[in-house]
Amino acid sequence: MAEQLPGLPDDTARAPQPAASPDHTGPPEPAASPDHPSPPEPAASPDHTGPPEPAPSTEPAPGPGRARASEPALSLEEATGLRISSQLDPTGELREAVGDCVHCGFCLPACPTYQLWGEEMDSPRGRIHLIGQLLDGASASQAAAQHIDRCLGCMACLTACPSGVRYDRLIGAARSWANQSAGPEDDQGAGPRADIRRSGGQAGDGSQEASPSPLPPRSRRDRLVRAAIFATFPYPDRLRLLVGPLRAAQRTGLDRLLDHDTLASRLPPELAAALRVAPRLAVATPTPVKLASRWPAARREPTPIRPPRPSKPRRAGRPPERIPARGTRRAVVGMLTGCVQQVFFPQVNVATARVLAAEGCEVLIPAGQGCCGALSLHDGRRAEAAGFARRLIETFERAGVDAIVVNSAGCGSAMKEYQELLATDSEWADRAAALSAKVADFSEFLAALGPAAARHPLPITVAYHDACHLAHAQRITRAPRDLLLAIPGLSLAEIPDVGTCCGSAGIYNLVQPQAAADLGERKAAAVRETGADLLVSGNPGCALQIASALAVLESPMPVAHLAEVLDASFRAHPASRLVPSKPG
Ligand code: SF4
Ligand code: SF4
Fold this sequence. Notes:
Rossmann fold; 4 domains; 5-stranded mixed sheet; 5% strand; binds iron/sulfur cluster
């Protein structure tokens, strides 16, 4: 059994995800205080006893497009005549969450952006204070809004907070405000009042929002980048179109040239970041995997228990819709294929299904799953996320499964939140809750199921990276370690900064490329320090980010998913399959 690690929650601790299984519904347990015996004091005046003073003003700052800087800013409350708290926080839930913060500072050392910049306003406590001010009717400046956008949403502060402050709800609301304020007419000389007038219009996700936004609009460039990301990443067929150009860039060595500052500085930083984190050919092969040939059992065995579904023509590289259990059937599980996972890491989906089948699960992989909406949800595009969620709920309802196994931490976290996302939709609330209750991370599901397949030795040392949406959002840290340690010959090396975000964080490494690169480099250095043979993570974004950062450090350490390690052990593969430098 893996030991409890400082900075990480216990799997048995109750998670702050309201949509999680009954085991994951309470406030987070306090972080072990010995790690933080002396939390940082608020960055306010020495005699400060209350909330920290925010470093930047929440008044609109002069800047591009703010021609009427001398005009006094109106607060939202003044401009609309309505109480802000009732517009932004109709149930009072956000105000209550802000009020729960006792400003103790225990969360500060755990926060990656506070670690990077040491700024109070880039800490959870500072952001909570800022959000409280916005709820009170303040209008944020661009600078203040940036402190919100710089948050990774990694939820390390949830784990660290002894008071159970629901920071996830606060940052989720703030992100939705940021999307609401994305109007087409900023950058055109409008003043702070225009920010207020624009608020309450169309949200960034295309939905109509009733509430005004207290945040100023993002820059036109930022909005364009986000629009491009959200027009591509949730759609695997569109994402596949990027694979060819990315491979061409890698073949010609263009991506390597990015290491030279001159080329990187000529490219838009977001494009340079995308090229940097694109999967290396050695890490993942985007070529469609011949899945049917990987499952001899799927061809050999008829359908012993369940009548066969009418077969549909299957596109090359698409998984079969049903993989029978090996031996006695123990469960019928649905499998999410994911967007990034199926395009950049098809071999992880192959390994996941094969491991599940080997453990006695009949695996159903419904076609037409679409995106789960994780990227949208975590970026505050709630209406867009709700659309994806409804489609996925319908798809898995039709499949009729006992559980839905997810091998991507961000996707699993979002699906466990469907219950909350659709809570006010009378048609969908119960269906969303039913789906959320069935969702389990790959490691969580296997640990609960118990082993059936034989484990063969793998004499390697593995560094396990906790994806934030697994460790902090879903509170799963022990299960993947226990599964790894159950493999004979395998040893674990803990990463020194365990529990700290690698900088991937959904689309963060594309919209905040410098901060993400700095965090990635720190993480890669910490991973390298372990001297492990292999890095294992349960999230495709983390795998891309850390593999890219390890390449910058010229580390040859390969990166794999837990499913690939288990699959190699089940199939008695030599260690060299996972770690090419290993003999055999
Ligand atoms: S979510 Fe992560 S980056 Fe954001 S405030 Fe919390 S710890 Fe800091
Ligand atoms: S969020 Fe929690 S840990 Fe951080 S300052 Fe507030 S009460 Fe303390």
